[in-house]
Write a structure and sequence with these properties.
484 residues, mainly alpha, two-stranded antiparallel ribbon, 19 helices, disordered C terminus
Length: 484
Protein backbone atom coordinates (compact mmCIF):
# COMPACT_ATOMS: atom_id res chain seq x y z
CA UNK A 1 0.00 0.00 0.00
CA UNK A 2 1.33 3.42 -0.97
CA UNK A 3 2.15 5.59 2.03
CA UNK A 4 0.89 9.22 2.12
CA UNK A 5 4.49 10.47 2.24
CA UNK A 6 5.15 8.86 -1.15
CA UNK A 7 2.43 10.93 -2.81
CA UNK A 8 2.97 14.34 -4.37
CA UNK A 9 0.41 16.13 -2.20
CA UNK A 10 2.32 15.25 0.99
CA UNK A 11 5.59 16.85 -0.08
CA UNK A 12 3.73 19.98 -1.19
CA UNK A 13 2.01 20.22 2.20
CA UNK A 14 5.47 19.98 3.76
CA UNK A 15 6.63 22.65 1.34
CA UNK A 16 3.79 25.03 2.29
CA UNK A 17 4.63 25.06 5.98
CA UNK A 18 8.33 25.00 5.17
CA UNK A 19 7.84 28.20 3.16
CA UNK A 20 6.17 29.89 6.14
CA UNK A 21 9.30 29.36 8.26
CA UNK A 22 10.89 32.54 6.90
CA UNK A 23 7.84 34.65 6.03
CA UNK A 24 7.85 36.68 9.24
CA UNK A 25 11.62 36.98 9.50
CA UNK A 26 11.95 38.35 5.97
CA UNK A 27 9.25 40.91 6.79
CA UNK A 28 11.33 42.01 9.80
CA UNK A 29 14.65 42.02 7.99
CA UNK A 30 13.96 45.06 5.79
CA UNK A 31 11.82 47.13 8.17
CA UNK A 32 14.79 49.51 8.66
CA UNK A 33 14.99 50.01 4.89
CA UNK A 34 11.37 51.17 4.66
CA UNK A 35 11.71 53.35 7.77
CA UNK A 36 15.20 54.66 7.09
CA UNK A 37 14.10 58.27 7.67
CA UNK A 38 12.67 57.31 11.06
CA UNK A 39 15.81 55.43 12.09
CA UNK A 40 18.04 58.34 11.03
CA UNK A 41 15.54 61.05 11.95
CA UNK A 42 16.00 63.72 14.61
CA UNK A 43 15.34 62.99 18.27
CA UNK A 44 13.34 66.22 18.52
CA UNK A 45 11.99 68.80 16.07
CA UNK A 46 11.81 72.10 18.01
CA UNK A 47 12.06 74.33 14.91
CA UNK A 48 10.09 72.24 12.41
CA UNK A 49 8.33 74.07 9.58
CA UNK A 50 5.63 72.92 7.16
CA UNK A 51 6.44 73.23 3.45
CA UNK A 52 3.77 72.27 0.89
CA UNK A 53 1.92 70.26 3.50
CA UNK A 54 4.97 68.27 4.67
CA UNK A 55 7.14 68.78 7.74
CA UNK A 56 10.82 69.36 7.02
CA UNK A 57 11.84 67.50 10.18
CA UNK A 58 11.37 63.76 10.76
CA UNK A 59 11.20 62.46 14.30
CA UNK A 60 13.28 59.34 14.72
CA UNK A 61 15.94 57.45 16.61
CA UNK A 62 18.79 59.78 15.70
CA UNK A 63 21.10 57.21 14.07
CA UNK A 64 23.91 58.27 11.75
CA UNK A 65 24.12 56.65 8.28
CA UNK A 66 27.05 54.57 9.54
CA UNK A 67 25.07 53.33 12.55
CA UNK A 68 22.09 52.58 10.33
CA UNK A 69 24.16 50.49 7.91
CA UNK A 70 25.68 48.74 10.92
CA UNK A 71 22.22 47.23 11.58
CA UNK A 72 22.57 45.39 8.29
CA UNK A 73 26.28 44.71 8.63
CA UNK A 74 25.96 43.00 12.02
CA UNK A 75 23.17 40.83 10.63
CA UNK A 76 25.45 39.78 7.80
CA UNK A 77 28.52 39.25 10.02
CA UNK A 78 26.49 37.17 12.47
CA UNK A 79 25.32 34.96 9.63
CA UNK A 80 28.87 34.60 8.42
CA UNK A 81 30.01 33.27 11.79
CA UNK A 82 27.00 31.31 13.02
CA UNK A 83 25.68 29.54 9.93
CA UNK A 84 28.79 27.41 9.45
CA UNK A 85 28.33 25.74 12.82
CA UNK A 86 24.56 25.84 12.38
CA UNK A 87 24.81 23.85 9.15
CA UNK A 88 27.05 21.28 10.79
CA UNK A 89 24.71 20.99 13.81
CA UNK A 90 21.72 20.46 11.54
CA UNK A 91 23.59 17.70 9.69
CA UNK A 92 24.41 16.09 13.04
CA UNK A 93 21.22 16.68 15.04
CA UNK A 94 18.60 16.86 12.32
CA UNK A 95 16.03 19.24 10.89
CA UNK A 96 13.71 19.09 13.90
CA UNK A 97 16.33 20.49 16.23
CA UNK A 98 17.12 23.23 13.72
CA UNK A 99 13.62 24.52 13.07
CA UNK A 100 12.76 24.83 16.77
CA UNK A 101 16.01 26.38 17.92
CA UNK A 102 16.53 28.86 15.10
CA UNK A 103 12.91 30.02 14.88
CA UNK A 104 13.13 30.73 18.63
CA UNK A 105 16.19 32.91 18.01
CA UNK A 106 14.23 34.89 15.39
CA UNK A 107 11.47 35.60 17.90
CA UNK A 108 13.94 36.58 20.63
CA UNK A 109 16.07 38.77 18.34
CA UNK A 110 13.17 40.67 16.76
CA UNK A 111 11.66 41.26 20.22
CA UNK A 112 14.92 42.67 21.58
CA UNK A 113 15.26 44.88 18.48
CA UNK A 114 11.77 46.28 19.11
CA UNK A 115 12.55 46.74 22.80
CA UNK A 116 15.62 48.81 21.91
CA UNK A 117 13.45 51.44 20.20
CA UNK A 118 11.97 52.32 23.63
CA UNK A 119 15.40 53.65 24.69
CA UNK A 120 15.54 56.50 22.16
CA UNK A 121 18.06 59.15 23.14
CA UNK A 122 19.89 56.90 25.61
CA UNK A 123 23.20 55.02 25.37
CA UNK A 124 21.24 51.74 25.46
CA UNK A 125 19.48 52.23 22.11
CA UNK A 126 22.20 51.07 19.72
CA UNK A 127 23.59 48.18 21.85
CA UNK A 128 20.10 46.73 22.37
CA UNK A 129 19.12 47.01 18.71
CA UNK A 130 22.45 45.60 17.52
CA UNK A 131 22.13 42.68 19.94
CA UNK A 132 18.62 42.08 18.65
CA UNK A 133 19.86 42.05 15.05
CA UNK A 134 22.69 39.73 16.09
CA UNK A 135 20.29 37.16 17.57
CA UNK A 136 17.84 37.67 14.72
CA UNK A 137 20.61 37.12 12.17
CA UNK A 138 21.74 33.98 13.98
CA UNK A 139 18.24 32.57 13.76
CA UNK A 140 17.12 33.69 10.31
CA UNK A 141 20.25 32.73 8.39
CA UNK A 142 20.37 29.34 10.10
CA UNK A 143 16.63 28.79 9.64
CA UNK A 144 17.09 29.28 5.91
CA UNK A 145 19.66 26.44 5.93
CA UNK A 146 17.18 24.07 7.58
CA UNK A 147 14.49 25.22 5.15
CA UNK A 148 16.72 24.49 2.17
CA UNK A 149 17.74 21.13 3.61
CA UNK A 150 14.10 20.06 4.02
CA UNK A 151 13.27 21.30 0.53
CA UNK A 152 16.24 19.46 -1.01
CA UNK A 153 15.28 16.15 0.63
CA UNK A 154 11.63 16.18 -0.41
CA UNK A 155 12.09 17.58 -3.93
CA UNK A 156 15.50 16.43 -5.13
CA UNK A 157 15.04 14.75 -8.52
CA UNK A 158 11.51 16.15 -8.78
CA UNK A 159 10.41 19.80 -8.76
CA UNK A 160 13.57 21.07 -7.07
CA UNK A 161 13.88 24.51 -8.68
CA UNK A 162 10.11 25.05 -8.36
CA UNK A 163 10.26 24.19 -4.66
CA UNK A 164 13.20 26.54 -4.10
CA UNK A 165 11.38 29.18 -6.13
CA UNK A 166 8.28 28.89 -3.95
CA UNK A 167 10.28 29.15 -0.73
CA UNK A 168 11.89 32.30 -2.12
CA UNK A 169 8.46 33.60 -3.20
CA UNK A 170 7.01 33.18 0.29
CA UNK A 171 10.04 34.84 1.83
CA UNK A 172 9.76 37.70 -0.63
CA UNK A 173 6.04 37.97 0.07
CA UNK A 174 7.08 38.96 3.58
CA UNK A 175 9.50 41.50 2.12
CA UNK A 176 6.91 42.87 -0.32
CA UNK A 177 4.24 43.24 2.36
CA UNK A 178 6.83 45.05 4.45
CA UNK A 179 7.44 47.60 1.70
CA UNK A 180 3.70 48.08 1.13
CA UNK A 181 2.34 48.05 4.68
CA UNK A 182 5.07 49.11 7.11
CA UNK A 183 5.08 52.80 6.19
CA UNK A 184 1.30 53.06 6.61
CA UNK A 185 1.38 51.12 9.86
CA UNK A 186 4.15 53.36 11.24
CA UNK A 187 2.23 56.53 10.34
CA UNK A 188 -0.78 55.27 12.29
CA UNK A 189 0.75 53.46 15.25
CA UNK A 190 4.35 54.71 15.47
CA UNK A 191 7.77 53.11 15.12
CA UNK A 192 7.72 51.09 18.32
CA UNK A 193 4.44 49.29 17.62
CA UNK A 194 5.61 48.66 14.05
CA UNK A 195 8.71 46.84 15.29
CA UNK A 196 6.64 44.81 17.76
CA UNK A 197 4.29 43.87 14.92
CA UNK A 198 7.28 42.49 13.04
CA UNK A 199 8.28 40.46 16.10
CA UNK A 200 4.77 39.03 16.26
CA UNK A 201 5.09 37.82 12.68
CA UNK A 202 8.23 35.93 13.70
CA UNK A 203 6.02 33.93 16.06
CA UNK A 204 4.41 32.60 12.86
CA UNK A 205 7.77 31.06 11.99
CA UNK A 206 7.83 29.21 15.29
CA UNK A 207 4.29 27.84 14.83
CA UNK A 208 5.21 26.73 11.31
CA UNK A 209 8.31 25.06 12.74
CA UNK A 210 6.12 22.87 14.96
CA UNK A 211 4.00 21.74 12.01
CA UNK A 212 6.78 21.15 9.47
CA UNK A 213 8.81 19.25 12.06
CA UNK A 214 5.88 16.93 12.71
CA UNK A 215 5.23 16.37 9.01
CA UNK A 216 8.91 15.76 8.31
CA UNK A 217 9.18 13.19 11.09
CA UNK A 218 6.03 11.31 10.03
CA UNK A 219 7.11 11.35 6.38
CA UNK A 220 10.58 10.04 7.15
CA UNK A 221 9.15 7.10 9.09
CA UNK A 222 6.65 6.27 6.33
CA UNK A 223 9.44 6.26 3.76
CA UNK A 224 11.52 4.03 6.02
CA UNK A 225 14.43 6.48 6.02
CA UNK A 226 14.32 8.00 9.51
CA UNK A 227 16.76 5.58 11.16
CA UNK A 228 19.02 5.46 8.11
CA UNK A 229 19.32 9.24 7.90
CA UNK A 230 20.09 9.47 11.61
CA UNK A 231 22.84 6.88 11.10
CA UNK A 232 24.27 8.85 8.16
CA UNK A 233 24.16 12.03 10.23
CA UNK A 234 26.25 10.43 12.95
CA UNK A 235 29.01 9.87 10.38
CA UNK A 236 29.23 13.55 9.38
CA UNK A 237 32.50 15.22 10.38
CA UNK A 238 33.59 18.83 10.14
CA UNK A 239 36.60 17.60 8.15
CA UNK A 240 34.22 16.70 5.30
CA UNK A 241 34.49 20.34 4.22
CA UNK A 242 37.81 19.44 2.57
CA UNK A 243 35.95 17.10 0.21
CA UNK A 244 33.78 19.85 -1.28
CA UNK A 245 34.58 20.32 -4.97
CA UNK A 246 35.96 23.33 -6.84
CA UNK A 247 32.60 23.59 -8.57
CA UNK A 248 30.94 24.12 -5.18
CA UNK A 249 33.36 26.90 -4.18
CA UNK A 250 32.93 28.73 -7.48
CA UNK A 251 29.18 28.44 -7.10
CA UNK A 252 29.09 30.07 -3.67
CA UNK A 253 31.49 32.83 -4.79
CA UNK A 254 29.08 33.53 -7.65
CA UNK A 255 26.22 33.72 -5.14
CA UNK A 256 28.21 36.04 -2.86
CA UNK A 257 29.15 38.55 -5.56
CA UNK A 258 25.61 38.63 -6.94
CA UNK A 259 24.03 39.27 -3.55
CA UNK A 260 26.65 41.92 -2.78
CA UNK A 261 24.87 44.06 -5.34
CA UNK A 262 21.33 43.24 -4.22
CA UNK A 263 21.01 43.53 -0.44
CA UNK A 264 23.20 46.60 0.21
CA UNK A 265 21.38 48.43 -2.59
CA UNK A 266 17.92 47.59 -1.22
CA UNK A 267 18.99 48.69 2.27
CA UNK A 268 19.61 52.25 1.01
CA UNK A 269 17.32 52.30 -2.05
CA UNK A 270 14.52 54.37 -0.50
CA UNK A 271 16.92 57.12 0.55
CA UNK A 272 18.71 56.99 -2.81
CA UNK A 273 15.48 57.44 -4.78
CA UNK A 274 14.42 60.43 -2.67
CA UNK A 275 17.84 62.07 -2.90
CA UNK A 276 18.43 61.65 -6.64
CA UNK A 277 14.98 61.77 -8.21
CA UNK A 278 12.69 64.67 -7.47
CA UNK A 279 9.04 64.30 -6.58
CA UNK A 280 9.11 60.99 -4.67
CA UNK A 281 7.75 60.78 -1.14
CA UNK A 282 9.16 58.33 1.37
CA UNK A 283 6.20 55.99 0.80
CA UNK A 284 6.57 56.11 -3.00
CA UNK A 285 10.30 55.53 -2.75
CA UNK A 286 9.69 52.49 -0.53
CA UNK A 287 7.25 51.07 -3.10
CA UNK A 288 9.76 51.52 -5.91
CA UNK A 289 12.57 49.94 -3.88
CA UNK A 290 10.24 47.06 -3.05
CA UNK A 291 9.72 46.35 -6.76
CA UNK A 292 12.84 44.15 -6.56
CA UNK A 293 10.93 41.84 -4.24
CA UNK A 294 7.63 42.33 -6.12
CA UNK A 295 9.21 40.98 -9.30
CA UNK A 296 10.78 38.10 -7.40
CA UNK A 297 7.46 37.24 -5.76
CA UNK A 298 5.62 37.15 -9.08
CA UNK A 299 8.28 35.29 -11.05
CA UNK A 300 9.84 32.83 -8.59
CA UNK A 301 7.43 29.93 -9.13
CA UNK A 302 7.29 30.20 -12.92
CA UNK A 303 11.07 30.66 -13.16
CA UNK A 304 11.50 27.56 -11.00
CA UNK A 305 9.25 25.52 -13.31
CA UNK A 306 11.21 26.78 -16.33
CA UNK A 307 14.58 25.83 -14.85
CA UNK A 308 13.26 22.41 -13.76
CA UNK A 309 12.19 21.83 -17.35
CA UNK A 310 15.14 23.37 -19.18
CA UNK A 311 18.04 22.81 -16.77
CA UNK A 312 21.08 24.86 -17.81
CA UNK A 313 21.57 26.28 -14.31
CA UNK A 314 25.15 27.34 -15.01
CA UNK A 315 24.13 29.21 -18.15
CA UNK A 316 21.34 30.98 -16.27
CA UNK A 317 23.79 32.00 -13.52
CA UNK A 318 26.22 33.74 -15.86
CA UNK A 319 23.37 35.28 -17.90
CA UNK A 320 21.83 36.82 -14.76
CA UNK A 321 25.14 38.44 -13.86
CA UNK A 322 25.63 39.86 -17.34
CA UNK A 323 22.07 41.22 -17.52
CA UNK A 324 22.40 42.82 -14.07
CA UNK A 325 25.39 44.89 -15.15
CA UNK A 326 23.40 47.68 -16.90
CA UNK A 327 21.11 48.23 -13.89
CA UNK A 328 23.66 49.96 -11.70
CA UNK A 329 24.93 51.95 -14.67
CA UNK A 330 21.42 53.33 -15.22
CA UNK A 331 21.06 54.15 -11.54
CA UNK A 332 24.44 55.85 -11.32
CA UNK A 333 24.64 57.90 -14.51
CA UNK A 334 21.12 58.40 -15.89
CA UNK A 335 17.76 59.70 -14.76
CA UNK A 336 15.78 56.82 -16.21
CA UNK A 337 12.78 56.27 -13.86
CA UNK A 338 14.07 54.15 -10.97
CA UNK A 339 11.11 51.76 -11.19
CA UNK A 340 12.53 50.39 -14.45
CA UNK A 341 15.84 49.58 -12.75
CA UNK A 342 14.28 47.97 -9.67
CA UNK A 343 11.94 45.78 -11.75
CA UNK A 344 14.87 44.82 -13.98
CA UNK A 345 16.95 43.95 -10.92
CA UNK A 346 14.05 41.91 -9.52
CA UNK A 347 13.83 39.84 -12.71
CA UNK A 348 17.52 38.97 -12.78
CA UNK A 349 17.39 38.28 -9.04
CA UNK A 350 14.53 35.81 -9.56
CA UNK A 351 16.47 33.83 -12.15
CA UNK A 352 19.67 33.96 -10.09
CA UNK A 353 18.02 32.68 -6.91
CA UNK A 354 16.18 29.89 -8.75
CA UNK A 355 19.31 28.74 -10.58
CA UNK A 356 22.12 29.23 -8.06
CA UNK A 357 20.80 27.97 -4.71
CA UNK A 358 19.13 24.79 -6.06
CA UNK A 359 22.45 23.92 -7.70
CA UNK A 360 24.12 23.30 -4.33
CA UNK A 361 22.29 19.99 -3.64
CA UNK A 362 23.46 18.79 -7.08
CA UNK A 363 27.16 19.15 -6.27
CA UNK A 364 27.31 17.97 -2.62
CA UNK A 365 26.15 14.76 -0.85
CA UNK A 366 22.82 14.86 1.03
CA UNK A 367 24.49 13.99 4.35
CA UNK A 368 26.67 17.13 4.25
CA UNK A 369 24.09 19.44 2.65
CA UNK A 370 23.51 21.42 5.85
CA UNK A 371 27.22 22.10 6.25
CA UNK A 372 27.51 23.06 2.58
CA UNK A 373 24.50 25.40 2.83
CA UNK A 374 25.94 26.89 6.00
CA UNK A 375 29.26 27.62 4.31
CA UNK A 376 27.48 29.11 1.32
CA UNK A 377 25.37 31.38 3.52
CA UNK A 378 28.44 32.31 5.57
CA UNK A 379 30.51 33.36 2.58
CA UNK A 380 27.54 35.21 1.09
CA UNK A 381 27.00 37.12 4.33
CA UNK A 382 30.70 37.93 4.70
CA UNK A 383 30.48 39.61 1.31
CA UNK A 384 27.22 41.39 2.14
CA UNK A 385 28.57 42.49 5.52
CA UNK A 386 31.72 43.97 3.98
CA UNK A 387 29.59 45.63 1.30
CA UNK A 388 27.30 47.23 3.88
CA UNK A 389 30.29 48.64 5.75
CA UNK A 390 31.82 49.95 2.52
CA UNK A 391 28.51 51.55 1.51
CA UNK A 392 28.23 53.16 4.94
CA UNK A 393 31.66 54.71 4.50
CA UNK A 394 30.92 55.84 0.95
CA UNK A 395 27.68 57.57 1.93
CA UNK A 396 29.23 59.39 4.89
CA UNK A 397 28.68 59.41 8.65
CA UNK A 398 27.08 62.80 9.37
CA UNK A 399 23.37 62.68 10.16
CA UNK A 400 23.17 66.42 9.48
CA UNK A 401 23.47 65.67 5.76
CA UNK A 402 19.74 65.34 5.11
CA UNK A 403 20.38 64.90 1.40
CA UNK A 404 23.41 62.80 0.51
CA UNK A 405 25.34 64.27 -2.47
CA UNK A 406 24.85 62.60 -5.83
CA UNK A 407 28.56 61.86 -6.27
CA UNK A 408 28.44 59.66 -3.17
CA UNK A 409 25.52 57.67 -4.58
CA UNK A 410 27.43 57.28 -7.87
CA UNK A 411 30.42 55.86 -6.04
CA UNK A 412 28.11 53.40 -4.30
CA UNK A 413 26.70 52.25 -7.67
CA UNK A 414 30.22 51.86 -9.09
CA UNK A 415 30.99 49.60 -6.13
CA UNK A 416 27.89 47.54 -7.01
CA UNK A 417 29.10 47.38 -10.63
CA UNK A 418 32.45 46.01 -9.48
CA UNK A 419 30.73 43.20 -7.57
CA UNK A 420 28.61 42.34 -10.60
CA UNK A 421 31.72 42.12 -12.81
CA UNK A 422 33.30 39.78 -10.25
CA UNK A 423 30.11 37.68 -10.39
CA UNK A 424 30.41 37.41 -14.17
CA UNK A 425 34.00 36.16 -13.83
CA UNK A 426 33.24 33.51 -11.19
CA UNK A 427 30.10 32.29 -12.97
CA UNK A 428 32.03 31.95 -16.25
CA UNK A 429 34.71 29.90 -14.47
CA UNK A 430 31.94 27.81 -12.87
CA UNK A 431 30.62 26.87 -16.31
CA UNK A 432 34.10 25.93 -17.52
CA UNK A 433 34.76 23.68 -14.51
CA UNK A 434 31.28 22.17 -14.69
CA UNK A 435 31.78 21.32 -18.37
CA UNK A 436 35.02 19.51 -17.55
CA UNK A 437 33.39 17.55 -14.70
CA UNK A 438 30.35 16.18 -16.49
CA UNK A 439 28.18 19.27 -16.94
CA UNK A 440 25.86 18.38 -14.05
CA UNK A 441 24.66 21.97 -13.70
CA UNK A 442 23.92 22.34 -17.39
CA UNK A 443 22.03 19.10 -17.99
CA UNK A 444 18.98 19.73 -20.13
CA UNK A 445 16.84 17.03 -18.48
CA UNK A 446 16.09 15.89 -14.94
CA UNK A 447 17.37 12.35 -15.47
CA UNK A 448 20.66 12.92 -13.71
CA UNK A 449 18.88 14.47 -10.73
CA UNK A 450 16.41 11.58 -10.54
CA UNK A 451 19.24 9.07 -10.70
CA UNK A 452 21.08 10.85 -7.95
CA UNK A 453 17.95 11.00 -5.78
CA UNK A 454 17.34 7.27 -6.24
CA UNK A 455 20.99 6.58 -5.51
CA UNK A 456 20.86 8.59 -2.30
CA UNK A 457 17.77 6.78 -1.09
CA UNK A 458 19.12 3.35 -2.05
CA UNK A 459 22.32 4.12 -0.14
CA UNK A 460 20.34 5.11 2.92
CA UNK A 461 18.11 2.03 2.77
CA UNK A 462 21.11 -0.23 2.15
CA UNK A 463 22.85 1.28 5.16
CA UNK A 464 19.80 0.61 7.29
CA UNK A 465 19.59 -3.01 6.09
CA UNK A 466 23.28 -3.60 6.84
CA UNK A 467 22.79 -2.17 10.31
CA UNK A 468 19.85 -4.51 10.91
CA UNK A 469 21.90 -7.49 9.72
CA UNK A 470 24.68 -6.58 12.14
CA UNK A 471 22.18 -6.44 14.96
CA UNK A 472 20.86 -9.91 14.08
CA UNK A 473 24.36 -11.40 14.03
CA UNK A 474 25.12 -9.93 17.43
CA UNK A 475 21.69 -11.16 18.67
CA UNK A 476 20.77 -7.78 19.99
CA UNK A 477 17.06 -7.75 20.93
CA UNK A 478 14.86 -5.25 19.08
CA UNK A 479 14.13 -1.99 20.80
CA UNK A 480 11.99 1.04 20.10
CA UNK A 481 13.46 4.34 19.07
CA UNK A 482 12.10 7.35 20.92
CA UNK A 483 11.03 10.33 18.83
CA UNK A 484 13.67 13.00 18.74
Amino acid sequence: MTQPAEKAYYRFVVLFFNCLLTFGSYFCFDIPSVLQDQFQGNLTCPNATVINGTIDCVLGLGMTPQQYNLLYAIYAWTNAIVVIMAGFLVDKLGNRFGVFFFSSLCVLGSSLFALGSHFKGTPYLLPLMLTGRLLFGSGNGSLTIVQNRITAFWFKGKELALAFGLTIAFSRLGSVLNFFLTQRFEERYGLQWTLWGGALLCVLSFLSAVIVSTLDKIGMKQLGLDDAIQEESRKVRIQDVKLLSLRYWLLILTIMFFYNGIFPFIADASKFIQDKYSGYSQKEAAYIAGAVYDSSLVLSASVGILIDYVGLRGIFAVSCAVLTLPVFGLLAFTYVPPLISTIWLGITYSFAAASMWPSIPLVVPQATLGTAMGLATSIQMIGVGVSNLVVGQILGTKSSQTKIPLWRWQRMMIFMLANTIACIITSALLNVVDHRQGAILNKTTKRSEEAKQNSDRETLIQGEEEENQDEEVEEIPPHSINAS
